[in-house]
Specification:
With 504 residues, the chain is of the alpha/beta class. The protein has 2 domains: 126 residues, no CATH class; 339 residues, Alkaline Phosphatase, subunit A (3-Layer(aba) Sandwich). The protein is 42% helix and 11% strand. It contains 20 helices and 13 strands. It has a 7-stranded mixed β-sheet, sandwiched between helices. α2 packs antiparallel against α4, α2 packs parallel to α5 and α14 packs parallel to α15. The chain is globular.
């Protein structure tokens, strides 16, 4: 008797199996992404796909495995094992007899596959709409002249430094937004969980979207760390698409046509360094700072080499902020001993999603772990700033404290629940050389930090614009104030041939 070949007799069912597995895989990926990031955009998704996995926090990799790989593996096992339990695919796997009705309703394996396939297809269509495929089409195909008309290259305008150049300490705070200081959030958390940062904003310069403590808007394409750093340091976006090399090499050119604050300060004789509590190569950050300003780079690996942490140390994304601040003090003191002015940039990491990292310094003050982490970060920052103020070099040093982007954790309810409110990114300028003409009720975005930081150092900029940012210390309207926020954001969500040809 010939051997029964299910695949030969029912090839369409095998095709359905394969298609369903593909669709299901996409569905699990989408569920994990939407569960992990709020307001996820397709350009951010593509950027994350293009980046190497090295340097990623193990907690994120574990969560991805549990929500993607594990369910797909289980589903694959079901599809491979379950059909073999039946003599043929058409055998009913469920019979239902309704009371008073003699007819049997059979639900076959083929029917189950079709139902699952339809459900998965519907979910994937929903995911595509949520990622704004129409917007992505504009981002890659509808050419905007915005960059061509408004981009100002630092090479094309006069930039004059004061006779005595000031030091710069630029502190990027991971996922720090002024939203935490809003009354709507404070009422949920039982008071301000970042009182020191609030005081820094009140007692120093805080460019605000309102009349009180506030911040600037997150520009399109600036929703992750490297993009936020690029926008604040170059005044432009990191534009990502499926055009070009899918997985660029670590030493690939990073926006070779653009000029950053690092490039400008390097020409002025500054010693420059940047410090991360993680792998500097993650997200092309090493390329950004090495290629634009030749920064000396300190990260997890240099911390191990110098004994800041043990040789095999690894927690969270590398090492926590309590070691980062200690490491920063050590390197800043070395830079301050040199005759040349210095620019020291650093990025904190404890407040990274999801839920932050609770270190040994954190207290159990709030019901949300993230709130405890933010509170701890607030105390550590205050201690670090007070240390800087106590140093001899402080008189000639300007401190810029700013968030890299908004918090993207959809599970942190104190912020997620007020999505209907404006959510601004935190900023505070301490010991600035300049006083702003208009500090409050400004309409501004990430790119404005580029010329504004130079303005804080007492630098005069012809026209008060660099990149597509505006010096907020001047009386010049920002591009958002001049052209309207909706128009500018709409144009930045479109393709730019000028950007591709002249900046990337």
């Amino acid at each position: 008797m010939a051997k029964y070949d299910r695949k030969a007799k029912h090839p369409r069912l095998w095709y359905l199996n394969v298609i369903l597995l593909i669709f299901a895989s996409l569905s699990f990926c989408a569920m994990w992404l939407f569960d992990s990031w709020s307001d996820l955009t397709i350009d951010q998704l593509i950027n994350n796909i293009r980046q190497p996995i090295a340097g990623t926090s193990p907690s994120i990799l574990i969560k991805a495995f549990l929500m993607i790989a594990l369910p797909i593996t289980a589903l694959l096992c079901v599809f491979l094992v379950l059909p073999s339990l039946f003599k043929k695919y058409g055998y009913p796997i469920l019979r239902i007899k309704l009371r008073g009705i003699s007819r049997h309703f059979s639900f076959t394996w083929k029917g189950l596959l079709c139902v699952l396939l339809i459900c998965s297809a519907v979910f994937n269509i929903f995911a595509l709409f949520k990622l704004d495929i129409k917007g992505y089409y504009q981002y890659t195909n509808v050419d905007s002249s915005f960059y061509e008309e408004h981009y100002v290259s630092p090479d094309d305008v006069e930039i004059v430094f004061p006779e005595k150049k000031r030091n710069l300490i630029y502190i990027y705070l991971e996922a720090m937004e002024s939203t935490l200081m809003m009354p709507e959030v404070e009422s949920q958390t039982g008071g301000c969980i970042v009182p020191n940062m609030k005081a820094m904003a009140e007692e120093n310069i805080n460019f605000s979207h309102n009349s009180g403590i506030g911040g600037f808007y997150e520009a399109p394409g600036c929703a992750y760390t490297t993009a936020g750093m690029t926008a604040q340091g170059m005044g432009i976006q990191v534009r990502t698409s499926l055009r070009g090399e899918m997985f660029p090499k670590e030493d690939a050119a990073f926006l070779s046509g653009a000029v950053s604050i690092g490039d400008i300060l390097q020409k002025q004789g500054y010693n420059q360094a940047v410090m991360f509590g993680s792998d500097a190569s993650f997200g092309s950050r090493r390329s950004l700072f090495e290629q634009h300003g030749d920064y000396e780079i300190f990260d997890l690996f240099t911390a191990r080499e110098t004994g800041i942490v043990p040789e095999d140390y690894y927690v969270w994304w590398g090492f926590e902020d309590k070691y980062l601040y200690s490491y920063a003090q050590q390197e800043i003191l070395k830079m301050a001993e040199e005759e040349a002015p210095f620019n020291f940039t650093m990025l904190t990491v404890d407040t990274h999603m999801s839920d932050g990292y609770k270190c040994s310094l954190c207290r159990d003050e709030y019901s949300y772990n993230y709130s405890n982490v933010y509170s701890c970060a607030d105390r550590q920052l205050a201690e670090f700033v007070n240390w800087i103020k106590a140093q001899d070099f402080y008189e000639d040093t300007t401190i810029v404290i700013v968030g890299d982007h908004l918090n993207k954790d959809p599970e942190y309810k104190p912020i997620a629940d007020i999505s209907k409110y404006v959510r601004p990114i935190y900023n505070a300028f301490i010991n600035s050389s300049n006083v702003p003409t208009r500090e409050k009720s400004r309409v501004m975005y990430t790119m404005d930090m580029f010329p504004t930081t130079l303005g804080a150092l007492g630098v005069t900029i012809e026209g008060n614009r660099l990149g597509i940012g505006t010096n907020l210390f001047s009386d010049t309207d920002t591009l958002l104030e001049e052209l309207g926020q909706n128009f500018v954001f709409s144009e930045l969500n479109k393709y730019s041939s000028f950007y591709e040809e002249n900046l990337s």
